[in-house]
Write a structure and sequence with these properties.
A hairpin with a 2-residue loop joins strand 4 (about 95-100) and strand 5 (about 105-110). This protein has a 7-stranded mixed β-sheet with strand order 6-5-4-1-2-3-7, with helices on both faces. It has helices at about 15-20, 25-35, 50-60, 65-75, 130-145, and strands spanning about 5-10, 40-45, 85-90, 95-100, 105-110, 120-125, 145-150. Helix content is about 35%, strand content about 20%. The protein is globular and about 40 Å long. It has about 160 residues and is α/β, with parallel strands linked by helices. The N and C termini lie far apart (about 30 Å). The chain contains 5 helices and 7 strands; from the N terminus they run E-H-H-E-H-H-E-E-E-E-H-E.
Amino acid sequence: MTKAQHDLVFAGYTNYFLWLEQANFAGALRRKALSGCRVRFLIGDPASPVTAAREAEEGVPLTLSTRIAVTLDELAKLSDVAVIESRFETGHVNLSVFRFDDEMIVTPILARHVGHDSPMLHLRRRQADGMFDRFSEHVEELWGRGRDIREGNAQA
């Protein structure tokens, strides 16, 4: 993330761990956004039936909707940075994609596992139309279907 200058995309269903594991994550996002880096968050809708179904499958006390609430609370603290974009979309509950310019982390979420128990792939863009671009296009498709979180937390 520190090397990225153009694009930061956090397309994880909850993204809550970022705020807990990265020291001064909000400050880093603020600096990146204000320096011209595009910063986007694509998260799951906590009120969605997809979220409820996945919560039942995971069966853990720290529910998806609680984890999403952590991210929503942290993003609200950055609401003064208008260039940080965020949307709800429920089509990626089993896949997380985090993009940092021409590098990305992809985590396919395994059945009955939470994200931190799933494998992680580190991809680098080396050619057009490769694996990197395919995951980028997937995120763009989901982004296009999503809705701004400022519209509220209830599913449209």
